[in-house]
Amino acid sequence: MLDAVKNSQVRIAYLESxxxxxSQGRPVLGQCEKVPDRFRWSVPYDFTITIFQPNVEHLNDxxxxxxxxxxLMHVGIEVDGNEEKxxxxxxxxxxxxxxxxxxxxxxxxx
Length: 110
Known about the structure:
Blueprint: H1 2-6, E1 12-17, E2 22-23, E3 26-27, E4 30-34, E5 47-52, H2 53-56, H3 61-72, E6 75-80, E7 83-88, H4 97-103
Parallel strand pairs: 1-5
Antiparallel strand pairs: 2-3, 4-5, 6-7
């Protein structure tokens, strides 16, 4: 999956936010969003990946790397002829099987 990102023309903006984002009362560590078509005229990216700094201060370098891997796994790319089409990939489970197999279910709590 990440090879598809590396070998594509996808443009990703990496952002850091000082906002303590929460969802259903739980801290959100990061977020991957596809830039809507209506903003394409002013935003030169296909996706944004935002890391919510107050929620990741406790993470070590390995955990931050896994978090970025997790967010990159949301970048979906389909090739149609010579054109790439993008979408946000939902989780396989609550995370992604690839991350769970490699790093375990509680990788952010190590």
